[in-house]
Amino acid sequence: MRHVALTTVAAFTALVAIVACEEQAPDRTLTAPDVSFAKGIGGACDDGRARLIGTQQADIWARPALDSAQNRFDLVKAACIGTPTSTTKSLMLDYIEWTIDNRLARKAGATDAMLIAHWNTVFPYAGYTGTDQPTNVPASLFTDGAVGVIDWTETGEVEIPNKAALTSYPQDANGDQRDHLFVIYPIAANCLTGTNLQQSGPCFEFGSFPHVVPKFSPKVKVGICQPHDATPLSVPALGHLSPITKITEDGGTYPECVETANAPAGSWNDGLGAIVKRLAWHAKRAVSPAPLYAVHGGLGGLGDDISPHGAVDLEVFRSTFTNDVVGQAPGAPETGSWSIVTLTPPGTILVQASLGQQASKLAVLNQAGGNCKKNCGGLYLRGNLETAGPAASDGVYEAEFDALQAQTNM
Question: Is 0.85 topped by the overall pTM?
């Protein structure tokens, strides 16, 4: 029996889808300790907590804004007799929305940190504690983030212009039928732990208070903008951490991103790519002075919960042999790496210019050796994923390759 065979690999790509009396507040400086924020108080519907909330209001706002704050919180108190109700919680979040809208009407010397501390006094009054209150939200939220209250019966958006956005929709019978305070703020890059996927660009924390139970239905839509100077991604997608890194369900191009750039430093992402827009960008640059305003779509995703999000590359391996030298072993793939694990003479694994109907370069695995019977040449060409570490064990890998053989049998 003759054991001469040619097995070829032309290209391979792998993806993983995976109304009250007012006391004059003491004079305070930005560095002075705020004693009123540190008092021991009770929980939901507690009179002591309500008094502390009033003290904090007087520390943050002066009249007439103070009168408005007090009147709005009086509605919350009137609905909080013994045990907070859904009405109490909704009115409380209406009050939080007022504090956001009137943040800049506060007293001189009142800080964003004082406002967030105030929230964390108000939330427990309505029965929202632990993960249901914005305990770890940074004061930078107001200068480098986004925040807003969205009623569960309405469609609303919270957005950091040209960076990230979130849209919540009216909830059905399966969704969380409570109003929420939504926040978005940047966190450290490469925020998605436990993944071997390449990460690129900024990461953002998306949060909802109270914490969603059981889920958002319909799903909320989140999106982040990929700047031009981010590392180009071949197949960009949104990843989220919940509690391990997962691929966010594709939500299309979202949000619209406008950035100033003197030259494109990275790939044109526009969702999953738009060559026409990229060419138009270059054409405009040729006749326009810098800087330019480049408009493109962000990476959008859908989720029934929200958590940290960042961009990942779904492509973990790709080789077309385009840049390889004919007559030599395969060189470095576009993504990932090759390993020739076992090669027993006289077999060879070499790049060839073409073979049969394959008109472009390909890798040819030639066992050779004739009618070798027991001592046949051994060939093993293995493609390694882009990054080191274990492959994702939860998800789906899609592999595509072109192959042909030059004999009628193996």
Answer: no
DSSP 282: H
Which position has the token pair 């979040």? 93
In 3-state terms, what secondary structure has residue 212?
Answer: coil
Which residues, 6+ apart, have CB-to-CB distance to 180 below 8 Å?
Answer: 93, 149, 150, 152, 168, 208, 209, 210, 212
The residue written with tokens 């792998």 in the block is: 14
User: Can you name the residues that pair with 303 across neighbouring β-strands?
Assistant: 220
Q: Which residue has the tokens 């003491």?
A: 26
CB 342 within 8 A of CB 385: no
Q: Both tokens of residue 19?
A: 């109304």
245-247 and 199-209 beta bridge pairing? unpaired
**What type of residue sits at position 92?**
M
**What would the DSSP string read from start to end of 173-205?**
TTS--S-EEEEEEEE-SS---S--S-EEEEEEE
Q: Identify the sign of the CA torsion 311, 316, 320, 326.
A: positive
| Distance separating alpha carbons of residues 77 and 53, to the nearest angstrom | 11
* pLDDT tens-digit series, residues 155-179: 999 999 999 999 999 999 999 999 9
136-142 average pLDDT score: 95
Burial class (CB in 10 A: 0-12, 13-18, 19+), 409: exposed
Q: Look up residue 38 and give its two tokens.
A: 């540190």
Cα–Cα distance measured from residue 325 to residue 352, given in angstroms and rounded to the nearest whole number: 8
Cα–Cα distance between 46 and 49 in angstroms, integer?
5
Neighbours of 75 (CB within 10 A): 15
Token readout for 57 is: 């209001």
Q: How far, in Å, CA of 225 to CA of 202, rounded?
A: 8
CB 282 within 8 A of CB 228: no
Sign for the CA dihedral angle at 61, 57, 86, 146 comes to positive
Tens-place pLDDT, residues 290-329: 344 556 679 999 999 999 999 998 888 889 899 999 999 8
Q: Does residue 222 contact residue 182 with C-beta atoms inside 8 Å?
A: no
> Which residues face 405 on adjacent strands?
7
Q: What token pair was written down for 337?
A: 């790496």
